[in-house]
User: What shape does this take?
Amino acid sequence: MSKAYIVLGLSEFAYSTAVQLARSGEQVVVVDRNEALIQRIADDVTRAVCADVEDTEVLEELGIQDFDVAIIGMARHFDVSVLLVHYLKRVGVPHIIAQVNSDAAAEAIKVVGATEAVFPERDSARRIANSLLFPGLLDRIDVAEDSVIVEIATPARFVGKTIKDLDIRRKFHVYVIGIKRCSPKDGKCRTIVAPPPDTAFTAGDTMLVLGKRKSVNSFVTAVESFNAPAT
Assistant: This one.
């Protein structure tokens, strides 16, 4: 089901997010007082409004209370972000995402009422570091202080074998919580959520694996060793 998004402040992160959401068919309205940015993004989103994000009259005219998600791209102006979160919470926007530039700011903005705080620079640095440490890793998400979910290509030696055959949980202390599988005929992909133990891996599958950070790192290292050329 399509959602309505409003983006307040066009930082690089917010700009890119708005465009990607709109390209995916979502309704996206953006607000920023920088006329050049508004003109540049106008053709890529549902509506682009040149105005001060703190102008509540403008936001009310846009029907702010009817949006499903608000994204605040004002990390350099934390005071403005705090005021916006407070206002959005008061008018009933259910999901509020605020961009921040420090862990302290992330904690503070959540106290005010933000549903989620994003720190693009830190997250990008982590992804780059992970890609260098684990070249076969497709994605990594921190879900708790010491738990992560990783997305990694299934090695050839797993193909044709089931999760039970491989005994992944006992050997590595991680859980295969999903398998992304694409059809070779039409390229359409689906995710098998919580696959049963008798699910067999096929060529081209991508595994979604959950576990403690140390266990997941060991599993990823093992998978990469399976893919390494023989010497």
